[in-house]
User: Which sequence fits this backbone?
């Protein structure tokens, strides 16, 4: 009497060790260099998009407060208007970075996160002002072009690099959420 054929695993056919079973609900996490680079590029891209939205919120809020209808409610108080605009943009970028850029990290203390976020934004603003001040008062360059290159272009680049590093290192430091990590690898 013939015996029914038993299924043979891949490892039995090839002689190679069998890999552990993979949970069908969660794809395997690829820890290769390529996967890490892709994840970093996604986070960096998300960070830049959030920053661009923050820039638009900052500029839009400032212009509404100062120039709405010719002379806005804070037309004669541009510095307080800028402080308000920066504060509104900081709130927008905080939530954008928290939920999108660094959404893969769980937070156990959102108050601490927001406080550090605000502190590092103040430092970043100081870096931008430092670049402008260096150009103006050390290099004695005062044209609109030099102000925009030093304060806006170079200052913004330095501030963005600093913010990304500080947010990743000190602000959004919760443990990595494995389901979010696996979503990034899809």
Assistant:
């Amino acid at each position: 009497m013939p015996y029914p054929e038993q299924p043979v695993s891949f490892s039995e056919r090839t002689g190679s060790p069998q890999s552990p079973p993979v949970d069908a609900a969660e794809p395997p996490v690829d820890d290769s260099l390529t996967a890490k680079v892709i994840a970093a590029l996604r986070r960096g891209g998300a960070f830049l998009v959030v920053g661009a939205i923050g820039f638009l919120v900052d500029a839009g809020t400032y212009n509404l407060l100062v120039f709405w209808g010719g002379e806005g409610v804070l037309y004669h108080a541009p510095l307080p208007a800028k402080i308000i605009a920066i504060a509104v943009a900081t709130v927008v970028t905080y939530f954008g970075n928290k939920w999108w850029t660094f959404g893969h990290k769980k937070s156990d203390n959102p108050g601490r996160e927001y406080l550090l976020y605000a502190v590092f934004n103040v430092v970043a603003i100081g870096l931008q002002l430092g670049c402008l001040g260096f150009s103006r008062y050390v290099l004695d360059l005062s044209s609109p072009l030099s102000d925009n290159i030093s304060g806006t272009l170079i200052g913004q680049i330095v501030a963005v690099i600093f913010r990304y590093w500080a947010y990743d290192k000190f602000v959004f430091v919760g443990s990595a959420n494995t389901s979010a990590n696996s979503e990034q690898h899809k």
